[in-house]
Amino acid sequence: MLYIVLVLVLAALGLLVAALITANSLWAWISIGLSVVAGLLLLFDLLRRRKKRAADAPAEEAAEDSAEDASDDESAEVDEKKPEDVEQTVLMPAAGELGDAEEAEEPQRTGDPGEEDSDPEDVAVVSELETEVVVVDEYPRYHVTSCTWLETRDTIPLGIGEARQLGFTPCALCTPDAEIAGQHREKA
Prior knowledge:
By secondary structure, the chain is α+β, with helices and mostly antiparallel strands. Helix content is 55%, strand content 7%. Strand 1 and strand 2 form a beta hairpin. The mean pLDDT is 78.
């Protein structure tokens, strides 16, 4: 049915083009007539499909009801077979979960690590240094190269003074300000 409608619409389009080229209104009226016939065929097909679905619906509902009754019987049999006094198995903790959470804190691997709460004296010391730190594109923190958060991320090396001037802040996991300031004080 849809193929017939498609052919009628294409014929109507061809006749409309012919009417425009030849300036003959007869072709335009025939094009309109073919379009109306195509629309009526689509309407007829829609009504026919609805009627067919309405006739099939009671048969499908009866089949579904019988299938539900059968599945209810099967689930009732399964419920009867389950023992209710089964003990739950206690899972062993994964590696690293044996101690207190405060003793061995898991390093943060995703997201943005927090900002180090730097001592103002450390900030004054590191601002004037050009010790190399690393940054990760799209993250606002700078890190020492041994930071556990970095893992396999692509890093960009910068001097610590330049990193601070560009607006990067120190990572809370590796505490670069405290570490670098401590190293500088040991040298001095």
